[in-house]
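User: Could you go from structure to sequence for me? I need the amino acid at each position, not a summary. Structure tokens:
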């Protein structure tokens, strides 16, 4: 997902870029209104985050100009202006959603994905995301904390299954069924364990873990502070 972040506060912008990369977005940063207008006119973004208090050209003017040329581009306003008339002006100018500072990133990410689902109803089927990990179903690629991860076809299928059932047990039977359509031999014995081991190594440092639920299967969940899974 290509995202434009128009934000003049460099500390906030740098923090947001890191978090958005970790959530699977590719971010271009505009520190002021003219740069935002330039980038919006040159690149085909999927969504934009727009601060109304941009220098040189304010965010509301950028939004009005954008709506004249790209009425379909999803825009989330992120601003310190929390008065009713500011919210009304932003929404009337064409914002799809409006958030005020300070904010929590998980809520911002949820709002971004909700806006994208409304704008592109079919897009939701192409990606799966959990905190710190994004998987694109169309390309079969994963991004962990902003870094792409190389996956074999079976690792990709296994990771997609674990993410789709986040914090729920995925049985070995479900894994075998998912692998049965990939053209290779499913195999037996410790085949699943081998791929689980490889995925665990690739998820190191992500804050996620794949736990073994003995006698049942595996589940992907937020990593516990006390250590790695069995």
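Assistant: Here is the amino acid at each position, in order:
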């Amino acid at each position: 997902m290509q995202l434009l972040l128009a934000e003049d506060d460099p500390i906030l912008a740098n923090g947001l870029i890191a978090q958005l990369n970790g959530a699977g977005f590719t971010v271009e940063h505009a520190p002021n209104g003219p740069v935002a207008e330039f980038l919006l006119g040159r690149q085909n973004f999927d969504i934009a985050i727009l601060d109304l208090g941009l220098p040189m050209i304010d965010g509301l003017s950028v939004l009005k100009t954008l709506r004249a040329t790209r009425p379909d581009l999803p825009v989330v306003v992120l601003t310190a202006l929390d008065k009713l008339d500011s919210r009304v002006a932003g929404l009337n100018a064409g914002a799809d959603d409006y958030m005020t500072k300070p904010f929590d990133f998980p809520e911002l990410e949820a709002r971004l994905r909700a806006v994208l689902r409304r704008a592109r109803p079919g897009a939701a089927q192409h990606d799966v995301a959990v905190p710190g990990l994004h998987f694109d179903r169309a390309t079969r690629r994963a991004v962990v904390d902003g870094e792409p991860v190389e996956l074999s076809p079976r690792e990709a299928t296994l990771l997609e299954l674990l993410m789709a059932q986040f914090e729920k047990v995925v049985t070995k039977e479900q894994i075998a069924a998912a692998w049965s359509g990939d053209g290779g031999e499913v195999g037996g014995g410790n085949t699943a364990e081998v791929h689980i081991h490889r995925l665990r190594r690739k998820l190191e440092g992500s804050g996620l873990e794949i736990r073994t639920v003995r006698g049942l299967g595996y589940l992907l969940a937020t990593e516990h502070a006390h250590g790695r899974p069995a």
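One structural detail worth keeping in mind: Residues 4 and 48 are 5 Å apart (CA to CA).
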